[in-house]
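U., I forgot to send this yesterday:
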Amino acid sequence: MNERIKKTMENLEKNNMKAFFVETKEEVVPLIKTLVPEGSSVANGGSETLKQTGVISLLESGIYDFIDRRGLDGEEVRQCYIKSFGSDAFFCSSNAITENGELYNVDGNSNRVACIVYGPRQVIIVAGVNKIVSDINEAIERVKTTAAPPNTQRLSCKTPCAVTGHCISLDGENPLMCDGCESPQRICCNFVVSAKQRHKDRIKVILVNENLGY
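Result:
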C-alpha cells in the first residue's frame, strides 16, 4: 500500500467512513460476503466497477434479496428505486475519492447519490485506486474529463462530451463545478460531496489496487 492510498484510507476513517483495501478485484466478493449477511435486501447503482469485480454476479446469485431494476421502466423502475432506498445494503462506485477522505459523485437520474446520502442501512462503495484524487478541484476535473464522457458514450447520450471526450465547460476560461451542457440527456445534474459522516461506518469504501471503471 503506497502513502497516497494510506493517507486516503486514514482520512476516510476520520470522516467516519470505514475503509478497506484489497490488492485484486478477485478479493472484493469474499470481503463483501463478510459485510452483508445472506438474505439481506440489496440494490445497486449503475457501475462498471461492480461488473468488473463480480459484485453484480454476487447480487444476482440468489443468496440475497436483490432489488433488480434491469429491464424495468416507467412506474416499475420508480418503485424499484423507492424500494432500494430502504435496502439493507446499497452498492455502487464513486466518481472520485479525495486524499482528504471525501467522496465526490455526480449523477443524472440521481438514484445513486440519493442512496449514498440517506436511506439504505449501509452503502458499500467499490473503487479502483484510479479514482483517488488530490482534492475536490481535481475530483471535479476528473468527472468532466475521465468519468462523464465515457459514461455518456456507454449510455448513448447525445451530449457534447460524448463527441469531444471532455465537458464543454472546460472550453471556457473559468469553468465551475456545475457548468456543463444544455443537452436534455445531460448526466451531470446533481453534485454530491460526502465529507465527515454523522453515522459512523454506514458508508464503507473498498479500495482495490487496480484501475477499475471510469
